[in-house]
Amino acid sequence: MYGLDLADNIARLRHERKITQEELADFLGVTKASVSKWENAQSTPDLLMVLELATFFDVTVDGLLGYEPQLSREQIRRRYGELSGDFAKLPFDEALGKVRSLAHRYYSCYPFLLQLSILYWNHFMLADTREEQLKLLEEADAWCDHILENCSDVGVCGSALVVKAGLNLQMGRAAETIALLEPAAEPERLAGQDSGLLVQAYQMVGEREKARSYVQARQYLGLLNMVGDGMLSLALYEDDLPRCEETIHRLKGLMRGYQLEVLHPNMAAQFYFQSALVYAVNEKWDEALEALGAFEKCISRLLEAEEITLHGDEYFDLLDEWIERLPLGNMAPRDRGFIYKNVGESLGHPAFYGMRERKEFQRLVRRFTNN
């Protein structure tokens, strides 16, 4: 699918120039039979002849060979979507082989290599054994190192650092994760002030629409961070039920106000699932089932949508433009089939063992394990 296309390109470019094989052969000082063999992939021109062909057709050598060392943003999004779907549809080793082949081919396309690292991060758990999972995480970690050592794009390198930290955490290397992220977390770095200054600068030069768009993006990310940090708090304080219940109460109010279940059902689903775990750990079975009911509602919203995408709403009416500038645009990082599989496995969490005989819980399990 991604092989070189020298033979086809010579024939295509020759037809576009409206010249015969004989005319091309005369220009290059070779026989018509040589040109015919090149176009039928029976032989290939030597290096000097490739240079002459590229000059004659006024294309780069890469263009003549059909080799694309760099991918456009749209190409990266399309191939990420294909590969994400492969993990849900193909045997795991086959999907993995396609990723590795593309990583080898586009090893210098750092934005794409970054997305392949994220792809591994999102799907490594599909490997059969912990040893295989660690191997994949190590592989993605090495890609991040390659990006950090060679890429000059500050944004790509910053993202690669965060992904590397996440991969190390999955490998149980908490100390390495701290070493990578702690410097950026120091208060004197005035985290977040840069974007606030940018909004003010847009206002000063009269670009109010850009200022508004950026403010909406900051609000949106702040909302997701608040809910995400709340989930971490629930996990850290699961033995302090009163505190957890207050956290759940406050976050539900925030989510209701911003209509997060519609705006970002995946984030809302994660919150309700974490809430269910807290209640289950504390043997509050009715509350756990209620939280799982809200979780199911969010997952249903995801699965019933024509496409699983990130999007704004009537309040965040300038958000879609900002989302489009993300590396993957509005594309979901995981496929619909993967969501079913992941939800089914999540319901097998040991914390839910005490309510396995309840009919409502059994219905949930059946729904997400029979697809």
From TrEMBL:
Keyword DNA-binding: yes
Any one GO molecular function term: DNA binding
Keywords recorded for this protein, A-Z: DNA-binding
Organism, as annotated: Sporofaciens musculi
Taxonomy, superkingdom: Bacteria
Domain HTH cro/C1-type: 10-64
PANTHER family reported in the protein's UniProt record: HTH-TYPE TRANSCRIPTIONAL REGULATOR XRE, TRACRIPTIONAL REGULATORY PROTEIN-RELATED-RELATED
Name of the protein in question: Helix-turn-helix domain-containing protein
SUPFAM superfamilies, A to Z: lambda repressor-like DNA-binding domains
Pfam families from the UniProt entry: HTH_3 (PF01381)
